[in-house]
Backbone:
């Protein structure tokens, strides 16, 4: 008991010393002046409905009463609600993690509404009965509350202290949100015992960004065995003290063509690299390097342990599967197709197994790790070189190439090597062919889990070349009719989308839509779709058509139903890079006989435009001879990712495509 | 622990005694006719709702569905909500292959248990249990056996055995079992009256269907109970929490609802003083109501808290006065208290809200509501107040609650009334555009649009909840032009009887008109193009068209001089049972004048009218896109 008191005092002294400078200007809870209610708008964003006046947080370690450390986070936020459309800012959800009896807790919470009523400040407290607890899942409790007595113009203030027993995790500090913030300030005081990598993200510069070191003492209560007294252990060490301040932070909103807003929001996150031994022993590596991680992952029973085993149970399975195949490639395809077509993916965000790899085969279901690790194991058993590959999907945000941080990964695929050729496989999606990956996997880097060579694989959207080719032939048919035929071959991604669509609509209905997409009445026949089930090949749509000519003057858009009608970039401004899903190469070719009895009156002008020198090209070529019109449109972008500075020229480029794609061929009747 | 053993033992007997049948779920046993166009088939369903007493019941079902293909997967999972008044006491599930062989059985640890309170709610006790075998070797069959105990009779299950379109039913049985002296009420649609039997001092009502083929998904089809077998069930005497009621008629149900809200309207003295301060100086009642409604809107906000009986009982007016927030019940009750203080009688009114929730079983008293509004009977008419909105105009109900039945509740019980319906004359979009194009095809346009009634609902909430920047983003999504920028825009809401909003937009569209050599192509209908064209072909069900609206457009476009008209679209007009349409194109010197009138009427129509409707949509689509061709004069 005595020890405990002493410990408290010594700790207080240290902290007062350490934070004296930083805390000098910190606002006091409830220190509000009538003048604070005067502004009707704030310079940070004059159109904002509500503004965060300040958001101040700090994280410190404290000796716990359980033999280790607690992470204590304090937060004080003051918000001005300018009008009722910002009232949602007054409703708070604080997530608290728990696993069994180890749970995060809020130790103190003050929340108030300040109103200016008849020139006087009136303060309304949140009553404790109005704090609700939602047991969201096994590991997550959400505390929810909303502040009382809101008025347009209210100032609300929230202050709490959150104690977490999870010493390895520091919650990221997010500077930016759906409302503008005038000042956001965060400090972290971390014992050097815990070696964290600090990751900064976002485009907004810091006003303050400092790091100092300071001596510190922690008293840790070590619980005794049953019937014995607890003891207090003293730890003397050095703390790292970080301070970050950002000012005038605009709100952040999603724009088209970005992978996830999470990649751009200004925030600081912490990843534990290792824990030094307080007693001077060897350090515990948490992050390590990819060689070590690969070794550990392959030993981990939740990941690769099952791959290295004998797996005798696979023998019969493989025998049946690969019966009749003569090459390893054929066998690999059979194995892949079997896994894809028979095992359902119940969770597309997982890097660890949910059970032994055998389970996925038995129950015919599993998460993406279960499925692709099973696939890896089957390939290995078949004698094919195979490795698991870790990646982070687009929704999950960027994985950092420089740091081996497992947290940043959420997906497993398989790499195999046959005759020196490498293939990346994902058997978790129903309609992805051998050697193709879902779009969601193309999010920068993937890491091969191979202790000898844990190499990076480039999986950027730039590397997907989506080619589309449409060819149309139109000739003079009988009785003044025009007869045409069309062949449309899609890229890999569009093929997937088309297959998805044709699962839901009948082929009949699909062609009814095709017919509707033409601006004139026509009859369709001989409709076919090739490679609908052959997922390795692009889908090819074919049909013949015929139409009548009635008018004396004909206006025909040579792009027919394939024109770009709208600019895909309709916003005038852009804050983020443009991340298109893939690079494109779209070709449209038309050869049309001049209808009997008509002459060409006017043709659109041919043109060729380059985008940023060699990053893209648009060609629109029209020519005619005595009997026919030849036309070609090529739209090519060699990459998918562009910087915000490129936005305007990208918008102009597509604007020009839309303009040319609306032009018409004019034909006139020669004699009546 | 003891309890759960008891329950499973009990079930064991239950299953054996009543329906011990081990069903054969081999796909080969499905009558071939059922396979046609179905993506899933309900093989067997047994639903039993057993009333124990006026405050408790057991709901039991056994349901097996064969999934034929990927589209049927949505019928393979199981989810059941529960709350303070219900408990899921038993779950058993089995997965079978195409031959009807058992593949897997459910493990209790596979069942997910989740919070089911939505983002919109601050606190409630809705929870959800969920399970899925995640299987995809087709065809396969899943079977679920579930028992839920409920300690209330306010909500009773309905029987709608046809779960979905493209879904066939081999066999489904529904039984209600109740004490012999308990009077149950029910209503049957598309099915026969029940067979009534006696079983161990209980009365049993049984319905069933066999071999019901799948039905297609069609545009504008009538409500489900008009096209598939449905039985709805209601209580007579019932109890929930400490409250008792009788639902035999709307009067009785209303009395129950009233008992929940009775004596909850006492206002703190400062609020009462505020009421008099506002209302006493206004002589006109309607104006008084408007002023108090505005006061309520400015001083409260909507926050949903639904715990236990609080899902049905409003918070005290004093609670709202103190916190300045509440849910629909609390805010309506608060408004009721404000009016009461001013000496104006108003009525707490239950309604089924939602843009597509206009149908209810008005002749069948039961808990069919999800929202509360306030009605204020005046000498000549009734004023309607939506108390969860801080912005809506007093007396106007948006498409969320207009044109449907509602239950007014006071000390005398409940009375069904209809909320106002807005016709196509009320729901207008009148647009006038003054524009010009230059020789490069660049368009400059000033657009003035007056939206009214339900046509202004979305816009109204947009301008009342979003910043100017966000409004612009939405506007850019709504306007369908190829390449354009908005140079200015503003909105002026008008407090007309039917609310309206005037929208003014100036925009510039580079190369709106297509220039090909010496020709310019102009589509004068800039902004009012219809987009929908229904699927052609045979139809199974009659038509139920919901939208009533009227759009009137006038567009004037100045063209560069030195051009003549080479081609001009034909005017088009028709009038039929679905509505009226008229477009006209005219050239007046250097000016193109385009006029358009389009009115659609809601209503029910026989399926034989469908080809005419399709043709109408197609004709409108085409006429809306008519183009003029201008050609430069030679020389």
Residues:
């Amino acid at each position: 008991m005595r020890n405990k008191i002493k410990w408290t005092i010594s700790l207080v002294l240290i902290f007062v010393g350490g934070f004296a400078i930083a805390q000098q200007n910190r606002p006091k809870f409830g220190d509000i002046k009538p003048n604070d209610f005067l502004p009707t708008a704030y310079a940070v964003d004059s159109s904002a409905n509500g503004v965060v006046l300040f958001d101040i947080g700090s994280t410190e370690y404290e000796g716990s009463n359980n033999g280790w450390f607690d992470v204590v986070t304090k937060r004080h936020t003051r918000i001005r609600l300018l009008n009722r459309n910002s009232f949602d800012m007054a409703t708070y959800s604080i997530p608290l993690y728990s696993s069994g009896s180890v749970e995060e807790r809020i130790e103190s919470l003050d929340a108030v509404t300040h109103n200016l009523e008849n020139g006087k400040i009136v303060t309304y407290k949140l009553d404790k009965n109005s704090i609700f607890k939602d047991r969201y899942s096994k590991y997550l409790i959400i505390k929810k509350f909303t502040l009382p007595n809101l008025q347009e113009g209210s100032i609300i203030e929230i202050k709490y202290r959150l104690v977490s027993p999870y010493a390895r995790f520091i919650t990221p500090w997010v500077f930016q949100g759906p409302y503008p913030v005038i000042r956001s300030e965060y400090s972290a005081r971390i014992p050097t015992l815990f070696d964290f990598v600090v990751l900064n993200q976002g485009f907004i510069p810091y006003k303050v960004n400092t790091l100092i070191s300071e001596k510190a003492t922690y008293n840790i209560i070590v619980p005794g065995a049953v019937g014995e007294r607890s003891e207090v252990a003293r730890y003397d060490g050095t703390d790292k003290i970080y301070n970050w301040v950002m000012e005038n932070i605009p709100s952040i909103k999603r724009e088209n063509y970005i992978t996830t807003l999470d990649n751009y929001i200004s925030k600081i996150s912490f990843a534990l690299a290792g824990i030094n031994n307080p007693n001077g022993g060897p350090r515990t590596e948490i992050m390590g390097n990819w060689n070590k991680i690969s070794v550990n992952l392959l030993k981990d029973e939740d990941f690769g342990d099952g791959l290295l085993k004998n797996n005798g149970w696979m023998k019969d399975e493989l025998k049946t599967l690969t019966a009749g195949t003569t090459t390893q490639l054929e066998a690999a395809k059979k194995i892949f197709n079997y896994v894809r077509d028979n095992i359902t993916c119940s969770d597309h965000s997982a890097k660890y197994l949910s059970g032994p790899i055998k389970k996925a085969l038995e129950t015919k279901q599993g998460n993406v790790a279960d499925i692709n690790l099973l696939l890896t194991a089957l390939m290995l058993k078949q004698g094919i070189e195979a490795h698991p590959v870790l990646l982070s999907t687009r929704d999950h945000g960027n994985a950092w190439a420089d740091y081996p941080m497992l947290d940043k990964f959420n997906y497993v695929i398989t790499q195999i090597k046959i005759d020196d050729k490498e293939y990346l496989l994902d058997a978790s999606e129903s309609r992805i062919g051998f050697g193709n990956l879902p779009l969601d996997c193309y999010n920068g880097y993937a890491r091969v889990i191979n202790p000898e060579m844990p190499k990076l694989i480039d999986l950027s959207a730039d590397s997907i070349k989506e080619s589309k080719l449409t060819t149309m032939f139109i000739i003079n048919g009988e009785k003044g009719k025009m007869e045409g035929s069309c062949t449309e071959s899609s890229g890999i991604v569009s093929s997937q989308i088309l297959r998805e669509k044709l699962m839901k609509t009948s082929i009949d209905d699909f062609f009814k839509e095709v017919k509707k997409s033409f601006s004139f009445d026509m009859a369709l026949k001989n409709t076919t779709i090739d490679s609908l089930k052959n997922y390795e090949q692009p889908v090819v749509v074919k049909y013949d058509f015929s139409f009548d000519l009635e008018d004396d003057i004909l206006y025909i858009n040579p792009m027919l139903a394939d024109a770009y009608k709208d600019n895909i970039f309709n916003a005038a401004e852009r804050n983020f890079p443009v991340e298109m899903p893939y690079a494109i190469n779209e070709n449209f070719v038309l050869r049309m006989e001049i209808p009997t009895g008509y002459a060409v009156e006017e043709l659109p002008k041919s043109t060729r435009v380059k985008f940023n020198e060699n990053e893209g090209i648009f060609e629109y070529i029209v020519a005619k001879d005595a009997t026919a019109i030849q036309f070609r449109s090529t739209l090519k972008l060699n990459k998918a990712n562009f910087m915000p500075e490129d936005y305007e020229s990208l918008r102009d480029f597509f604007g020009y495509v839309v303009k040319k794609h609306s032009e018409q061929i004019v034909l006139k009747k020669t004699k009546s | 622990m003891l309890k759960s053993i008891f329950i499973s033992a009990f079930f064991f007997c239950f299953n054996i005694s009543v329906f011990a049948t081990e069903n054969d779920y081999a796909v080969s046993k499905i009558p071939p006719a059922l396979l046609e166009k179905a993506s899933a088939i309900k093989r067997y369903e047994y639903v039993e709702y057993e009333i124990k007493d006026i405050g408790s019941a057991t709901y039991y079902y056994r349901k097996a569905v064969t999934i034929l293909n990927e589209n049927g997967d949505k019928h393979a999972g199981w989810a059941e909500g529960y709350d303070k008044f219900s408990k899921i006491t038993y779950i058993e599930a089995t997965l079978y292959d195409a031959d009807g062989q058992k593949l897997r059985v459910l493990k209790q640890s596979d069942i997910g248990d989740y919070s089911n309170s939505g983002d919109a709610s601050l606190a409630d006790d809705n929870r959800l249990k969920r399970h899925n075998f995640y299987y995809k070797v087709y065809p396969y069959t899943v079977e679920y056996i579930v028992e839920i105990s409920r300690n209330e009779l306010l909500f009773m299950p309905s029987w709608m055995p046809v779960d979905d379109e493209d879904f066939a039913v081999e066999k489904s049985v529904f039984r209600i079992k109740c004490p012999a002296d308990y009077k149950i009420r029910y209503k049957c649609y598309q099915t026969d009256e029940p067979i009534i039997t006696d079983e161990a001092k209980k009365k049993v009502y049984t319905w069933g269907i066999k071999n019901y083929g799948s039905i297609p998904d069609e545009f504008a089809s009538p409500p489900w109970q008009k096209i598939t077998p449905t039985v709805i069930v209601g209580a007579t005497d019932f109890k929930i929490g400490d409250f008792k009621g009788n639902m035999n008629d709307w009067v009785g149900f209303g009395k129950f609802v009233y008992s929940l809200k009775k004596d909850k309207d006492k206002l703190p003295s400062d609020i009462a003083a505020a009421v008099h301060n506002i209302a006493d100086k206004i002589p006109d009642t309607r104006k008084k109501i408007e002023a108090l409604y505005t006061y309520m809107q400015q001083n409260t906000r909507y926050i949903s808290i639904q715990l236990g009986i609080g899902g049905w009982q409003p918070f005290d007016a004093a609670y709202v006065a103190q916190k300045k927030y509440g849910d629909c019940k609390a805010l309506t009750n608060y408004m009721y208290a404000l009016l009461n203080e001013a000496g104006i009688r108003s009525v707490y009114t239950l309604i089924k809200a939602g843009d597509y929730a206009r149908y209810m079983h008005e002749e069948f008293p039961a808990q069919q509501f999800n929202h509360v509004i306030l009605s204020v009977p005046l000498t000549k008419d009734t004023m309607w107040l939506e108390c969860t909105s801080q912005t809506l105009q007093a007396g106007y109900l948006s498409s969320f609650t207009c044109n449907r039945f509602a239950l007014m509740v006071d000390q005398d019980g409940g009375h069904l009334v209809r909320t106002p319906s807005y016709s196509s004359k009320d729901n207008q979009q009148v647009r006038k555009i003054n524009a010009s194009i230059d020789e490069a095809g660049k368009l400059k346009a000033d657009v003035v649009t007056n939206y009214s009634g339900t046509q202004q609902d979305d816009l109204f909430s947009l301008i009342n909840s979003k910043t100017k920047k966000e409004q612009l983003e939405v506007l850019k999504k709504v306007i369908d032009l190829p390449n354009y920028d908005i140079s200015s825009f503003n909105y002026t809401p008008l407090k007309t009887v039917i609310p309206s909003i005037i929208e003014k937009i100036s925009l510039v569209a580079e190369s709106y008109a297509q220039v090909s050599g010496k020709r310019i192509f102009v589509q004068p209908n800039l902004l009012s193009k219809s987009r929908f064209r229904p699927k052609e072909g045979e139809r199974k069900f009659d038509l139920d068209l919901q939208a009533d609206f009227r759009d009137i457009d006038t567009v004037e476009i100045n063209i560069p001089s030195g051009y003549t008209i080479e081609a001009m679209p034909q005017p088009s007009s028709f009038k039929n049972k679905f509505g009226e349409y008229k477009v006209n194109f005219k050239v007046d010197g250097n000016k193109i004048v385009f006029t358009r009138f389009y009115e659609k009427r809601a209503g029910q129509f026989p399926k034989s009218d469908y080809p005419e409707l399709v043709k109408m949509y197609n004709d409108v689509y085409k006429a809306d896109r008519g183009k003029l061709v201008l050609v430069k004069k030679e020389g």
User: Anything to note?
Assistant: The CA atoms of residues 413 and 426 of chain A lie 5 Å apart. DSSP finds nine helices and 36 strands in chain A. The first strand of chain A starts at residue 50 and ends at 63. Chain A touches chain B through 59 residues (CB under 8 Å).
